[in-house]
Amino acid sequence: MPVGPVTIDTLRELFPVCERLAYLNAGTDGPLPARAAQAGAGELRRAAERGRSREHFERRSELSAALRGSYAKALGCDPADVALTTCTSEGLAIVLLGLDLRQGDEIVTSDEEHPGLLGTLGALRELRGVSIRQAPFDRVHEAVRSSTRVVACSHVSFMTGRLAPAQLADVEVPVLLDGAQGVGAIACDLDELGCDAYAGAGQKWLCGPDGTGMLYVSKRLLPQLLLFRRGYGNLVDPDAGIDARPHEDARRFDSPALSAETLASALAAIEPLEQAGWRAVHERARSLASQLAERLASNGRAVTPRGPTTLVSFSSPDAPAERDRLSERGIVLRDIPGRPLLRASVGAWNDERDLERLHHALA
Fold it and tell me: How far is Cα 278 from Cα 82, in angstroms, rounded to an integer?
């Protein structure tokens, strides 16, 4: 483990899994740093030894504030505009349900969306009669019409690594972006994206534990969202009983029961990425992904059109079987269900040896 401040060149040493595997699966779950596991275990020991009383809950509040600040830095926004969630899907649901859409309203989405978004869209269609219209990913902005109330799609396609069209910043209706493959992987300029809400994951490119995520809500959209879930953690004055008021900023959407061990682990995971520098983290991951795409093409694999991102999807004659074969050789990636594609997720913790290992295994 590195001694002293973490740099982009020492980052890999923090991840035990990288010692034996070519881990190319951060788009599903990022590699967990040893210090994150230690931080979570430390919180559990603290609770076991000291009990869980006022000090315990004050500790959770401190960790929440620190993690909110780190997530805000990764998103490039004000901490007051960030809610702590359990996953990307929860953040997406908070916004889509909060808009209180009804029959006759329409949501525009793309043809390359993850079940985390599609699940909520299906529920809105079934329970509220909302119309869902899918458009090609690179032309989703063109599908907006008078009945459209919101556009909900990925910032980075989980299937191909393509970026959402820049023209989404100019549409008149609210834009909700699924940032599961964005935050932590590439720079997120929310002003440039022009989105009103952005849901991200803590366990993917930020390398935190499962059960972590974030939701950015713009100050313009926040007053429009209904708040269906209120509890101790998102109330200003929880002891006021039924008259208790929710926070006026994005904290009103916080998940009610993020544990101290989860918060501490997530914070310990993101801190070395911050130390290495987000610009360096993003640049290294994008550069390695670009190198991998070139190597795959030299192997005769068709690489799907992609953007300057960290995902590389490529052709496979039998993706599930080849995924398993590669796993047996110590190379971890995933297949894209229903498509003849394998997907490699390349992070700043990877190096050329990982790319070479995959190159030779596919040759």
Answer: 19
CATH of domain 11-31+277-362: 3.90.1150.10
260: Cβ–Cβ under 8 A, 6 or more apart, which residues?
43, 46, 47, 56, 59, 60, 63
Determine the Cα–Cα distance for residues 239 and 186; give it in Å rounded to an integer: 41
Q: Please report which helix (H) or strand (E) contains residue 121, including its range.
A: helix 115-128
Express each pLDDT in 9-20 by its tens digit. 999 999 999 999
Please, which pLDDT band fits residue 2 given cuts at 50, 70 and 90? low
Residues contacting 227, CB < 8 A, separation 6+: 98, 246, 252, 253
| pTM check: above 0.90 | yes
pLDDT in tens, 128-149: 999 999 999 999 999 999 999 9
**Residue 49: its H or E element:** helix 34-50
Q: Select from 3.40.50.300, 3.40.640.10, 3.40.190.10, 3.10.620.30 the CATH code of 45-273.
A: 3.40.640.10
- Residue ranges of the chain that CATH labels 3.40.640.10: 45-273
- Starting at the earlier edge strand, list the strands of the sheet with 311-315: 311-315, 341-345, 334-335
pLDDT average, residue stretch 157-185: 97
Average pLDDT over residues 48-52: 95
